[in-house]
Amino acid sequence: MTTYAIGDLQGCHAEFVELLERIDFDPRHDRLWLAGDLVNRGPASLACLREVRALGEAAITVLGNHDLHLLAVARGGGRLNRKDTLAAILDAPDRDALLDWLQSRPLLVRQAFDGQGDTVMTHAGLLPQWTQDEAAGFAAEVEARLGGECSGSFLERMYGNAPACWKASLEGIERLRAIVNVLTRMRFIDAGGCLDFSAKEGLDSAPPGFAPWFRYPRGDDLRLVFGHWAALEGRAEGAQVRAEALDTGCVWGGTLTALNLSSGERIDVPSHQRR
């Protein structure tokens, strides 16, 4: 059995099918880890959702910020943005089944792989101040709220840039929002673990006093697999941790990338989208 981690699909269904063929993926034996953002911006978000859901236990996906945005629009009173490509999902006859499935996905997965040690995947990364056990517990807090009776009110209040700094003493919606922001939106942080939400481009766009989260050392040898940051083009340059960047910008005309989580081999297919 081989497990592959694949970067952000964002509605690039044709490339996803091509990549599965390229790695000779067999759902009877192999497994997929998907780094979140299955939907939005690309041309076939509905097909991506249906394809991944149909793989059943052969595929594990973590929630990304675009996945949560879809849930917020559908079930939390949120509004579509001008560039969203989510209408086909919202109008689909199997809409509720797809949204129920998506809403039950985790924010973090972890496993030990031979020769690679412990591996954690989230959409955006992991604060260096969090141990993997703490991070799993924090993710579970959000997952419990998404699966609870008050999920609609949570989705309505989920997004916002405050608080930008994580504190263990945070409570209520501020605590849950801070966890969501770390796991699905983080790029640049300062030495204290405060997030910057203004810079979204490459490493040279870091605001003064901030650096990519993976340039801060950790107290363990955890391998961190993440998507979210297409401008990195799959390279976590200057990393002080074992970081594997998987978002290679398929929806922006780059590639779609799969990482063999045992061997470390990368396989990619070119995008069908215009740059």
From TrEMBL:
Purpose: Hydrolyzes diadenosine 5',5'''-P1,P4-tetraphosphate to yield ADP.
Signal peptide: none
UniProt-listed InterPro entries: ApaH, Calcineurin-like_PHP, Metallo-depent_PP-like
Domain of life of the source: Bacteria
Statement: the UniProt record of this protein carries the keyword Chloroplast: no
Residue span, Calcineurin-like phosphoesterase domain: 1-125
CDD domains from the UniProt entry: MPP_ApaH (cd07422)
Keywords: Hydrolase
Assigned EC number: 3.6.1.41
Name of the protein this chain belongs to: bis(5'-nucleosyl)-tetraphosphatase (symmetrical)
Gene3D superfamilies on file: 3.60.21.10
Family listed: Belongs to the Ap4A hydrolase family.
Entry keyword annotation includes Hydrolase: yes
The reaction(s) this protein catalyses: P(1),P(4)-bis(5'-adenosyl) tetraphosphate + H2O = 2 ADP + 2 H(+)
GO molecular function: bis(5'-nucleosyl)-tetraphosphatase (symmetrical) activity
